[in-house]
C-alpha cells in the first residue's frame, strides 16, 4: 500500500476536512473533535466526490405519538458528509448511510506519527 501525507494534526480544527490526492485516487481526511477519519472520495451511490460535499450535523425528525412530524432538530454528536451529486448522507465516524446500513463509504487507512497524518491506499 502506498502512503501519503495529509498534513499535520495542527492544520485541522474540529469539523475540518482535506481531500488528499493519493496517486490515481483521492481520500478525504476529517477531524471530528480529537478524532480523525479517512474515506475514499467516492460515493457508494454513484461514485460522486462525496468528501467534497457539505458537512452538517445529522438531521432528526422527532415523531409524535400520532405519527406526525412537525419539526426537525440536529444531533450534535453526529456529523455527516453529504454527497454533492445526489445528496446521499453518510456518517463521518462510521461511513454508513443512515437510511440503509448496507450502503457505506470505503475506509482509507489513517495513521498519526509525530503529529503528522498519513493515509494509505
UniProtKB/TrEMBL annotation:
Gene3D superfamilies: Rieske [2Fe-2S] iron-sulphur domain (2.102.10.10). One of its GO terms (molecular function) is dioxygenase activity. SUPFAM superfamilies: ISP domain. Keywords: 2Fe-2S, Dioxygenase, Iron, Iron-sulfur, Metal-binding, Oxidoreductase. InterPro entries: Rieske_2Fe-2S (IPR017941), Rieske_2Fe-2S_sf (IPR036922). Residues 4-119 form the Rieske domain. PROSITE patterns: RIESKE. Pfam families: Rieske (PF00355). This is Ferredoxin subunit of nitrite reductase or a ring-hydroxylating dioxygenase. It comes from Bradyrhizobium canariense.
Amino acid at each position: 500500500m502506498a502512503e501519503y501525507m495529509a498534513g499535520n494534526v495542527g492544520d485541522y480544527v474540529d469539523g475540518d476536512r482535506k481531500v488528499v490526492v493519493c496517486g490515481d485516487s483521492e481520500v478525504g481526511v476529517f477531524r471530528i473533535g480529537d478524532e480523525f477519519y479517512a474515506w475514499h472520495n467516492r460515493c457508494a451511490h454513484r461514485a460522486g466526490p462525496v468528501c467534497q460535499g457539505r458537512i452538517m450535523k445529522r438531521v432528526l425528525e422527532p415523531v409524535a405519538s400520532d405519527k406526525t412530524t412537525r419539526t426537525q432538530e440536529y444531533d450534535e454528536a453526529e456529523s455527516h458528509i453529504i454527497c454533492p451529486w445526489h445528496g446521499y448522507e453518510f456518517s463521518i465516524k462510521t461511513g454508513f448511510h443512515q437510511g440503509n446500513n448496507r450502503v457505506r463509504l470505503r475506509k482509507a487507512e489513517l495513521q498519526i506519527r509525530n503529529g503528522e497524518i498519513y493515509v494509505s491506499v
